[in-house]
Amino acid sequence: MEELLNPHVIFWIWVLPVTKTVIATWLVMAFLVVGSILLTRKMTLVPGRLQNVVELFVEAILNLIEGMSPGYGRQFLPLVGTLALFIGTSNLANLVPGLQAPTGNFNTTLALALIVFFAVPYYGIRNQGLRNYLKTYISPSPILAPFHIIGEITRTLSLALRLFGNILGEEIIIAILFMLAPLFLPVPMMLFSIFTGIIQAYIFTILTVVYLSASVEKAGH
Amino acid sequence: MLQVDRSLIFQIINFIVLVFLLVRFLFKPVLRALDRRSQKIRSELEEIEKTREELRKLKEKYEEEERSIQQRYKEALERANQEALQMKATIIEEAYQEAEKIKREYETRAQKEIERLHKELREEIAEIAIAIAGKILQEHITPQIQERLIDELLDAALNRIESRLSIAHEK
Predict the structure, then answer these.
(1) Which segments of chain A does DSSP mark as H helices, in order?
(2) A35, A200, A209, B139: which one has the fewest Cβ atoms less than 10 Å from its Cβ?
(3) What is this model's ipTM?
(4) Which positions, given as ranges, span the membrane (chain A) (predicted)?
(5) Given B2, B27, B32, which is nearest A106 (Cβ)?
(6) For residue range B48-86, what is the model confidence (pLDDT) as tens digits?
């Protein structure tokens, strides 16, 4: 159990510990990048089946963003699309024997949540200027500024904890089921974890889009 | 318990690297393909629209031409009608004049003929009368009568000469 929460450090690069989670993260990244290269190697005007899948995914992300903040689809696509792909793939990494989902580690989810935390003011300032962005903190009243700030911190924590808790919980349940009845019982739970893994990725993604779209909206709107 | 350690930094770097890699290998190529396709569709739609517009213009031109031809045809027909009517009027007028001329010509000719005939007739009658008178005179005249006639003729001649002279004298 302790191993799931705080994986061993396998080796160090300079001062940074390479844990099992980091290695799993690299595997997920490699999978995504190699898959992308293979799928987008030959982009044709009339898409084949695989190209259709990739285009469908990208367009789905674009539509998700455009639905909430029209006009920002292409701007948010790198962050939002990468989040969706990385979290989704990570959550499903549980199913690979011997691999732990990187998202089952709090360091990973906190890293993702922190990136969203900093991306919100980044896009806000970039799109409406520093003055207008800071105005959103004192609207409708300056009294609310501390609450805005607290809200941003807590929602970041909740993003990280929700994803981490769900995925780790599942891992723990599957681990326990393995201990109790290793042959059949874990299978339905693993199937269920596919479902929750995708759901969690979707929740993280859509919340990110909501925060980003709020940041680019003009104050008072 | 829940530990935040330095692997957090690792994960942040990992994610940022992943963003760049996916932009390079996934999002850009896909967006490019999507753009290219929509560009192609748009340009083809534009092409279609342009062709349709051209067709519409051509049709309009043809219709316009047809209308103008129709118009010209009508005008030509009207003009021809007008000309025909005018020509008819002139021809009739000319014919009347010609007829009048011929009529007058014939009238004058007939008049002349009549006059000539009158003259001839009169001469003939005079000749016949003289002949008859000569015959009658040959049969009935006596020397006394002849003498008297000569006298009377001389008297008349004398009278006329006298009157002529008196008129000349008066003048």
Answers:
(1) 2-5, 20-40, 49-68, 73-93, 106-135, 145-180, 186-216
(2) B139
(3) 0.89
(4) 12-39, 76-96, 108-125, 163-185, 191-214
(5) B2
(6) 999 999 999 999 999 999 999 999 999 999 999 999 999
